[in-house]
Design goal:
globular, 8 helices, alpha/beta, 15 strands, single chain, eleven-stranded mixed beta sheet
Length: about 350
C-alpha cells in the first residue's frame, strides 16, 4: 500500500503506549476463509475539507486498478474516540475496518474514512441523533458527509447508485442518522454495536433502505436490551432502544417479512465465548431487507478473524467474536443492493 499524507501523525508517548497495549494482536484460533487479499496494494491518502469554518479530515483509499468504470463507494465511520489513523491501522491499533482496503483491491471499490470533530472528552465523535447525549461534537456532520460524498462523486468514477455506509458504535449511530436524513443517496447501511436512539433529535424517515446490524448480546457499552450507554452507564452518553425494538422499527419502515430466515454460523473459535446467528427479514419495499447478526456472548467489538483485539480490550469492552469477518459480511450484504 502506498501512503501519502498531507500532515504527519505524531501521537504522544502515552497515547502510543496505550494503543500498543490495547491493539496488540493475538492470532485467532481459526483461519479466515473469505477471499480477502492479505495485503492492500492501492493508495491511501489523507485530505481535509472545510465545512462551516472547520477543517474536516478524511482518508481515501483507491485500489491499484481503479480505471474509469463507475465503482461502489464505502464510507466507514469510526467509533467515538477513534481517529482515522486508528481505523486504518496506521497508529498500530488493531482494526477490522482496515481490511476494507484489502477487499477493495479484490472487489474494485473505493473506501473513504472520515473523522468526526472532538467532543466533550477531546476525542473525535459524531453528532448522531441522540437527543439526550451531551458528550458528542455538535458539528453538522450530515453536511460534512454529504458534501464529502458529492466531492468524491465529482472527482472519481463512483457509481451513485452504490454508495454504502458502515459504522460502529457512535459511528453506527451516525450511519443511522444518515439513513434518516439522506436515505435517497444511499444504497444500504451496515452498523456494528449500534441501535436506534431512545430519545431521537432527528425526524424519522419513511424511505425504504436496506440495513444490517451486528450486535453483541453482552455489549456492556451499548446494551443489547436498550438503556443508558457506556460502562458503567453514564446518562451524558444518552440512551438507545433495544436491538429487538430497533429491528422492529426497520421491519415496519421497509415492509419486510416479519418471520426471518435464520442462519447459524459455525463456531470456528470455541475460545471466543461467542457464536453468531443471522436473522434475515426479506421482501421489503423496493427489494429492501433487514438483517441482524446476533453475536451471542459478544461484547462491544466488531467480529474479526484476522484482526483480533487484546485481552485488555476485551476486559473493558467484552469478548470479540472470531467466527466471521465483519467487512466481508457487510460487503456480501452491500453488493446485493443499489438504488
Amino acid at each position: 500500500m502506498v501512503l501519502s499524507q498531507d500532515t504527519l501523525y505524531k501521537p504522544g508517548i502515552l497515547a502510543a503506549l496505550l494503543l500498543f497495549i490495547i491493539g496488540c494482536r493475538f492470532p485467532a484460533a481459526s483461519v479466515a476463509s473469505e477471499p480477502i487479499p492479505p495485503e492492500a496494494h492501492g493508495t491511501l491518502t489523507f485530505h481535509t475539507l472545510k465545512i462551516d469554518g472547520s477543517e474536516r479530515r478524511y482518508a481515501l483509499y483507491l485500489p491499484p486498478d481503479l480505471g474509469t468504470e463507475p465503482r461502489p463507494l464505502i464510507m466507514e465511520l469510526h467509533g467515538g474516540g477513534i481517529t482515522i489513523e486508528d481505523v486504518t491501522g496506521l497508529s498500530g491499533h488493531t482494526s477490522p475496518y482496515k481490511l476494507w482496503m484489502n477487499l477493495a483491491d479484490a472487489e474494485h471499490f473505493i473506501v473513504v474514512y472520515p473523522q468526526g470533530l472532538n467532543g466533550a472528552y477531546g476525542k473525535p465523535t459524531w453528532n448522531d441523533c441522540r437527543g439526550d447525549a451531551s458528550v458528542n461534537s455538535q458539528a453538522d456532520d450530515v453536511a460534512f458527509l454529504n458534501t464529502l460524498i458529492n466531492r468524491l462523486e465529482a472527482t472519481y468514477p463512483i457509481d451513485s447508485r452504490r454508495i454504502y455506509i458502515s459504522g460502529t458504535s457512535n459511528g453506527g449511530l451516525m450511519a443511522l442518522r444518515l439513513a434518516e436524513e439522506i436515505p435517497q443517496q444511499l444504497a444500504a447501511v451496515a452498523v456494528v454495536a449500534a441501535a436506534m436512539p431512545a430519545d431521537s433529535s432527528c425526524p424519522p424517515s419513511t424511505t425504504p433502505l436496506s440495513v444490517m446490524f451486528i450486535n453483541g448480546t453482552q455489549d456492556n457499552h451499548l446494551p443489547y436490551q436498550g438503556g443508558i450507554i457506556s460502562s458503567p452507564p453514564n446518562p451524558t452518553h444518552g440512551t438507545v432502544l433495544s436491538t429487538k425494538d430497533t429491528i422492529h422499527i426497520w421491519i415496519e419502515r421497509n415492509g419486510t417479512n416479519t418471520t426471518p430466515l435464520v442462519t447459524h454460523y459455525p463456531d470456528l473459535d470455541p475460545h471466543d465465548h461467542s457464536t453468531v446467528t443471522r436473522f434475515t427479514y426479506s421482501r421489503g419495499k423496493d427489494n429492501t431487507e433487514v438483517i441482524l447478526y446476533e453475536v451471542a456472548g459478544g461484547g462491544h467489538a466488531a467480529p474479526s478473524i484476522r484482526e483480533t483485539y487484546s485481552w485488555l480490550f476485551e476486559h473493558y469492552f467484552g469478548y470479540q467474536n472470531h467466527d466471521i469477518e465483519t467487512v466481508w459480511e457487510e460487503w456480501q450484504f452491500f453488493r446485493q443492493h443499489h438504488r
